Amino acid sequence: MLSFSRNSRSKIANWWWTIDKPLLAMLTAIMAIGIFLNFSASPSVANRIGASSFHFIKRQMAFLPLAFALMIFLSMQNLKVIRRTAVIGYAVTIFLMLLTLFWGEETKGASRWIRIFGFSLQPSEFIKPCFAVVAAWLFDGQKKYQDFPGNLLSISLYGLTLVLLLSQPDVGMSMVVTAIWLFQFFLSGLSLFLVGAMGLCGVGLLIMAYFMFPHVRVRVQQFMASENNLSYQIKKSLEAFQNGGWWGKGPGEGSVKMHIPDAHTDFIFAVAAEEYGLFLCLVIVGLYAAVVIRSMLISMKDNNLFIVLAASALAASFGLQGIINMCSSLHLMPTKGMTLPYISYGGSSLLATALGMGMLLAITRKNVHAEDKDETN
Questions:
Q1: 3-state SS of the chain?
Q2: Using CB atoms within 10 A of its CB, is residue 115 exposed (0-12), middle (13-18) or buried (19+)?
Q3: From CA 312, how far away is CA 253, in angstroms rounded?
Q4: Distance from CA of residue 226 to its chain's centroid?
Q5: What span, in angstroms and rounded, lies between the C-alpha atoms of 320 and 107?
Q6: Which of 18-27, 45-54, 145-154, 271-280 has the lowest mean pLDDT?
Q7: Are 86 and 129 contacting, i.e. CB atoms less than 8 angstroms apart?
Q8: pLDDT band for position 192 (50/70/90)?
């Protein structure tokens, strides 16, 4: 018989008493909000492409249980398993990203998708959580072992990752990976001067991207354009925010969303604003902020550098992607084609986020460091 007593030695009981329940509850709440918003946003998009109204909803609901199960399964693991999962995941993702360069499906000028067993997969979505944990392990190894070239290995893997991302090209993902990696490097002891120097190199790469990639140049020019020359999607997104007011038009009552091409993915935050108002938007922002802040506060209490670096990077990646999506919808930055984690439609995004948040929940468990020692001995 399954027991959740504190004295029980079962894996599930141990997980229940060591998992950070507020963090788990907040992530589950974000997933639940995503279900409601997909019901609001996706039917109009499906009808526009000639599919049934519930086409995207059915696909999202098929992936959702898998994503939730993956998150819970990973959250039960110790640090040793999490590190191995990240290394294997990173190697597989790099291999798949290489394949997309030759057999990828091109969409909007970028080759980021590859079809596997009848499903379209975006490998670059999985690079964020896997690389964050692998880099944390390498930085930690640099501190622990005198002759271990952790920093050099991390720089090499970052270079490989960046080259593959820009080859697709995926400038938005490159920016996220770079920001998170520099954040980890700084936390591991790199001087602020060197972090700043690397940041300036990153700015230089962005300037190069502006001149090298036409779609980047178009998005920047649209962002800098006057109000009358804004892109169609941005105009409709801002109109949705204005139409929603404080409390929204009500579930299914939005009219502007019908004219937003990517309402179920890149601009789902605008749908939330129109149908549920600024109130729900603030709740969503609060949940993302709470996940990031709580994760970092928990990790900072531990003396294990790997836990600090991995948890901080995973949480920051989750929050940064959310900020980019929301700011793009509000025309506060150029559009990046980046989903809102756990809310936007997309199987790859959903599973990749579950991978990252499952590892985060595992890393922030109360006795995960002790469990790791027990497994090693």
A1: CCCCCCCCCCHHHHHHHHCCHHHHHHHHHHHHHHHHHHHHHHHHHHHHCCCCCCHHHHHHHHHHHHHHHHHHHHHCCCHHHHHHHHHHHHHHHHHHHHHHHHHCEEECCEEEEEEECCEEECCHHHHHHHHHHHHHHHHHHHHHCCCCCHHHHHHHHHHHHHHHHHHCCCHHHHHHHHHHHHHHHHHCCCCHHHHHHHHHHHHHHHHHHHHHCHHHHHHHHHHHCCHHHCCHHHHHHHHHHHHHCCCCCCCCCCCHHHHCCCCCCCCHHHHHHHHHHHHHHHHHHHHHHHHHHHHHHHHHCCCCHHHHHHHHHHHHHHHHHHHHHHHHHCCCCCCCCCCCCCCCCCHHHHHHHHHHHHHHHHHCCCCHHHHHHHHHC
A2: exposed
A3: 39
A4: 31
A5: 24
A6: 45-54
A7: yes
A8: confident
Determine contact, residues 282/276, Cβ cutoff 8 Å: no
Whether 297 and 312 have beta carbons less than 8 Å apart is answered as no
pLDDT (tens digit, 9 = 90+) per residue, 278-336?
999 999 999 999 999 999 999 888 889 999 999 999 999 999 999 999 999 998 888 87
* Other Cβ atoms within 10 Å of 58 Cβ, number: 13
Question: Using omega within 30 degrees of 0 as the cis cutoff, is the peptide bond preceding 169 cis?
Answer: yes
111, β-bridge pairs: 106
Instruction: Flag whether pLDDT at 214 surpasses 80.
Output: no
Tokens 């595992």, residue located? 362
Residues 170 and 172: their CA atoms lie apart, in Å, by: 6
Give the whole-angstrom CA distance, residue 284 versus residue 342: 11
3 φ, ψ (degrees, to nearest 5)? -125, 140
Max Cα-Cα span within the chain: 66
Token pair 């729900």: residue: 280
Specify the pLDDT at position 376: 39
Sequence-distant (6+) residues with CB within 8 A of 270 are 236, 237, 238, 240, 241, 256, 257, 260, 263, 329
Q: How many CB atoms lie within 10 A of CB 52?
A: 11
Rounded CA separation 352/371 (Å): 25
